[in-house]
Amino acid sequence: MAKKYRSVQQYSKKIYELHNQGLTHREVGEKIGLSYKQVKKFFEREHRKERALAAGKALHKRGRPKNQNSEIPPSIQQLDKLAQMRYVLASKERYIKRLEMELELMQDFLSLTERK
């Protein structure tokens, strides 16, 4: 009888709790029902992510990037290509305006707290 697949990530909180209590990888695995190797690899991946973040690297999801058309609602996808491009352009302009407003707010805040 095959075992039911369980992702280690769904147990991450429990793994950290048990590990912080001073249990070994093997003991953590036995308590949760995972193998020693699964727990060990979990910690290796987590430490690798922590080192990358500490080095200032951005974490990227694995796999193929999402299709650009997924941002466009189905009602816009039915229109011609020019209308779709206008929609995308307008969306990007709204995003830029929002960022400019956030920048202005941050500059005001910093000037009020006498920081540059």
Number of strands: 0
What's the overall average pLDDT, rounded? 85
Mind describing the biggest β-sheet?
none
Q: Please give the count of helices.
A: 5
Rg for CA atoms: 24 Å
Which shape, going by the Cα principal axes? flat
* Helix fraction by DSSP (H/I, runs of at least 4): 55-70%
What is the strand content?
Answer: under 5%
Terminal CA distance reads 65 Å
Elements, N to C (H/E) = HHHHH
Outline the low-pLDDT stretches: none
What structural class results from the helix and strand content?
A: mainly alpha
Set out the fold topology.
Elements: H1 12-20, H2 25-32, H3 36-54, H4 74-77, H5 81-112
Helix pairs in contact: 1-2, 2-3
Description:
The protein is built from five helices and no strands. The model has no long low-confidence stretch (mean pLDDT 85). It is mainly alpha-helical and 116 residues long. 62% of the residues lie in helices and 0% in strands. Helix 2 crosses helix 3. The protein starts with 11 loop residues before the first helix and ends with a helix. It is flat and about 60 Å long.
Features:
single chain, about 120 residues, mainly alpha, 5 helices, about 0% strand, flat
Task: Write a concise synopsis of the structure shown.
By secondary structure, the protein is mainly alpha-helical.
